[in-house]
Amino acid sequence: MSLKILLVEDEPRLAQFLNLELTSAGYGVTVCNDGMSGLMSVRQLDPHLVIIDWMLPYLSGLEICRRLRQTGSKVPIILLTAKDRIADRVAGLDSGADDYLTKPFRVEELLARVRTRLRNLQNQQMLRHASLTLNRTTREVFYETHLIKLTVKEFELLEYFLKNPKSVLSRQQIVKEVWNYEHLQNYNIVHVYISHLRQKLEQHNPQRLIHTVRGYGYILR
């Protein structure tokens, strides 16, 4: 899957040059030329990484960073700017940027920083337990090399177990985290989905991974 990068840069020549370099490196690139369209595009496109110039028409790169972080967005942000004072770097990082690159810069350095930020993101998106791997970006699950097809809720249920391996999870915790219900009179829905998930996992792995803790809940071990 091609990783998506949003580039927000108002200098046409620099924007075109960076677009060509990032595209040649294998990324899917969308370019915006002002801050307001850049902010809207982050919300519409849900990119894997954002590269933003500090000085932009309508809305500064700093303000875009602040607004994204205020709304809970965790998208990695690289801030580009000609400002090179320590106070400016601090302001950029405090606004929510993950990295800061001063102009002029070599494109090789920008590409290296892009790779680092995306590698960190990909590592965060991979959950593993024994030979089981869950990719939160592509929403795929593999047992060794076997693709396991799961429904949306089955995927979210397995994701919750993989985020809490070797921890006993109560039925109430599972319902709250996976179904967003505070309370249920009947927890049969959990049992049904656990059964479906076990069947799919055990097609390729006869050893049970999700175990019942009688009278309480379940554990992945």
Distance between the termini: 31 Å
Give unreliable regions as ranges: none
Q: Helical percent range?
A: 40-55%
* Contiguous helical run count: 8
The main sheet comes to: 5 strands, parallel
The secondary structure category is alpha/beta
Residue-averaged pLDDT, rounded? 90
Shape by Cα distribution = elongated
Number of strands: 12
How many structural domains? 2
Q: In CATH's first tier, which class of the largest domain applies?
A: Alpha Beta
Order of helices and strands: EHEHEHEHEHEEEEHEHHEE
**CATH-defined fold name of the largest domain:** Rossmann fold
**What strand line-up does the widest sheet have?**
2-1-3-4-5
CATH architecture grouping of the largest domain: 3-Layer(aba) Sandwich
| Rg on CA atoms, Å | 22 Å
Task: Please state the oligomeric state of the protein chains shown.
Answer: single chain
CATH superfamily of the largest domain: Response regulator
Q: Give the DSSP E fraction (strand runs of 2 or more residues).
A: 15-25%
